[in-house]
């Protein structure tokens, strides 16, 4: 993709080379398509896939959620630098301070948090692809199930690049390319640029979906971290439009940072207004 963008940029700069540029662009696209085609496998028919129709809402409380009872979730084992960052966040929380967050500016939280926000999910099956729509921020994930591999040179994105395959009725998803600094899914702690996420998604009851994640992040985690969330199906619901910028009243601090006020009595960070 980067090669094609570079070619088009060169064409724009040197209009007199239009014919040559078109030829190179066509060749680059043909080569890219040939490489992709060579990795494709037989795509499983949509009619043979499990029934995930409907809207899926997360079940609360989740393990380790305040007031939660029963089995507790696995705790991440952090690297020393990550543990130090977490300590700073916990000390701010003890002072009832809300640290600046990019989500307060309406940037999406990215993977893996996209799967665990307190909003619903929808799964769309098409040949060779599963599309996951998160109501919050109207985010979209595309999971390619046509046998392709991860591209060798990925641009960092919020949700990364996801490829998947079916093991019976379980969708196994492999995601990399998560270069943005977004939450790891644990007390606002952010993940590193080498985060690798593997998900196993399947029904554990007619209307209950389980998402089991394994997170590997050498910059933040001493060892892989496993977490599980469940969702309940609602066939009579639909997603609502979610425009974060509309009526956004999060306070802007003197340093230009934005904090989210989540509960009464909380205050922005020390640089707040």
Mean pLDDT: 79
Give the helices and strands as they follow along the chain.
Answer: HHEHEEEEEEEEEEEE
Task: Specify the number of helices.
Answer: 3
Helix/strand structural class: alpha+beta
The amount of beta strand, in percent, is: 25-35%
CATH architecture descriptor text of the largest domain: Beta Barrel
In short:
Helices cover 18% and strands 27% of the residues. The chain has 273 residues and is an alpha+beta fold. The chain folds into two domains: 2-38; 57-92 and 103-234, Beta Barrel (Lipocalin), CATH 2.40.128.
What does this structure look like?
This protein has about 270 residues and is of the alpha+beta class. Helix 1 packs antiparallel against helix 2 (about 20-40). About 25% of the residues are buried. It is globular. It contains three helices and 13 strands. The protein has two domains: about 1-40; about 55-90 and about 105-235, Beta Barrel (Lipocalin). The strands form three sheets. It has a nine-stranded mixed beta sheet, with no helix packed on it. Strands 2-13 form a two-stranded parallel sheet.
């Amino acid at each position: 993709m980067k090669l094609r963008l570079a070619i088009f940029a060169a064409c724009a700069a040197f209009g007199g080379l239009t014919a040559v540029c078109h030829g190179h662009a066509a060749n680059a696209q043909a080569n890219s398509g040939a490489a992709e085609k060579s990795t494709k496998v037989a795509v499983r028919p949509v009619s043979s896939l499990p029934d995930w129709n409907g809207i899926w809402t997360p079940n609360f409380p989740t393990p380790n959620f305040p007031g939660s009872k029963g089995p507790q979730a696995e705790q991440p084992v952090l690297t020393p630098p990550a543990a130090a960052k977490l300590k700073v966040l916990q000390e701010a929380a003890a002072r009832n301070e809300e640290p600046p967050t990019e989500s307060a500016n309406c940037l999406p939280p990215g993977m893996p948090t996209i799967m665990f926000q307190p909003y619903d999910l929808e799964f769309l099956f098409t040949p060779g692809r599963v599309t996951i729509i998160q109501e919050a921020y109207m985010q979209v994930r595309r999971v390619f199930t046509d046998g392709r591999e991860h591209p060798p040179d990925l641009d960092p994105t919020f949700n990364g690049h996801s490829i998947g395959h079916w093991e019976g009725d379980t969708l196994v998803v492999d995601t990399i390319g998560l270069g943005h600094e977004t939450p790891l899914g644990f007390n606002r702690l952010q993940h590193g640029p080498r985060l690798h996420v593997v998900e196993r998604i399947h029904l554990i009851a007619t209307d209950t979906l389980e998402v089991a994640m394994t997170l590997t992040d050498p910059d933040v985690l001493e060892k892989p971290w496993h977490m599980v969330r469940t969702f309940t199906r609602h066939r009579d619901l639909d997603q609502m439009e979610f425009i974060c910028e509309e009526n956004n009243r999060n306070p802007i601090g003197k340093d230009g940072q934005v904090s989210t006020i989540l509960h009464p009595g909380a205050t922005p960070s020390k640089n707040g207004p």
